[in-house]
Amino acid sequence: MTKRIRVMLVDDHAVVRKGYRTLIEEHGTIEVVCEAADADAAYQLYKTKVPDVVIMDISMPGRGGIDAIRQIRLWDPSGRILVFSMHANAAYALQAFRAGAKGYVTKSSDPELLIAAIESVARNRTALCAEISEALATSRLQGDSNAFQALSPREFEILQLILDAKSTEEIANTLHLAPKTVGNYHYAIKSKLGVVSDIDLVYFCMRQGLIAPLASVPSS
């Protein structure tokens, strides 16, 4: 009998996790052994359950998936993590792989591709959906991702929290850092990206496609 792949789901939406669990467990070779709604719970559950594959969302309240990947891989360098995210931007994928992810599939991908990616990552093979492969190739050709490559995974995680309008104190509490340390990271991020102010930082990230501009509000 073939050994089943033990999976942990990490996503902050319970309904979404339920849907993925149903999809995944339709395949008799994969079973969901645990679920987590945030990065801290994911780290603690990983140490208890040690699943074969972690399916990790990136955007979650508080510490995001990039930091969770980094923390899990620090505890278990052989940990196999598959990112399953709405973000199809090359910068997210590059930072996920730098943090230690083994695969990256967007949530717009065909469900069968997710299953194939789980099986590939379980065999310690890299798995990419076509959308991310194309984004990475285009980014490399155009040189667009060079600026974000200069950021460490921790700096990229802090950048996401800054873009979420979190204060220095809120970021410090979320990441268990001193406010002064967060301030130093904040300064380093702006320096590496070549911007002076936070508004310049926001516009820079918009131009790079890291965040979307606000939609116009139709007049009543």
Radius of gyration of CA atoms, rounded to a whole number = 18 Å
Q: Helix amount, in percent? A: 40-55%
Would you tell me the overall average pLDDT?
85
Number of helices, counting only DSSP H or I runs of 4 residues or more: 11
CATH class of the largest domain: Alpha Beta
Question: Would you kindly provide a written description of the structure presented here, covering whatever features stand out?
Answer:
This protein is an alpha/beta fold. The protein is 53% helix and 13% strand. The chain folds into two domains: 5-141, Rossmann fold; 150-207, Orthogonal Bundle (Arc Repressor Mutant, subunit A). Strands 2-1-3-4-5-6 form a six-stranded parallel β-sheet, with helices on both faces. Strand 1 (5-10), helix 1 and strand 2 (30-36) form a beta-alpha-beta unit. Helix 3 runs antiparallel to helix 8 and helix 8 crosses helix 10. The N and C termini lie far apart (63 Å).
Kindly list the characteristics that best describe this protein:
alpha/beta, Rossmann fold, globular, 2 domains, 220 residues, Arc Repressor Mutant, subunit A
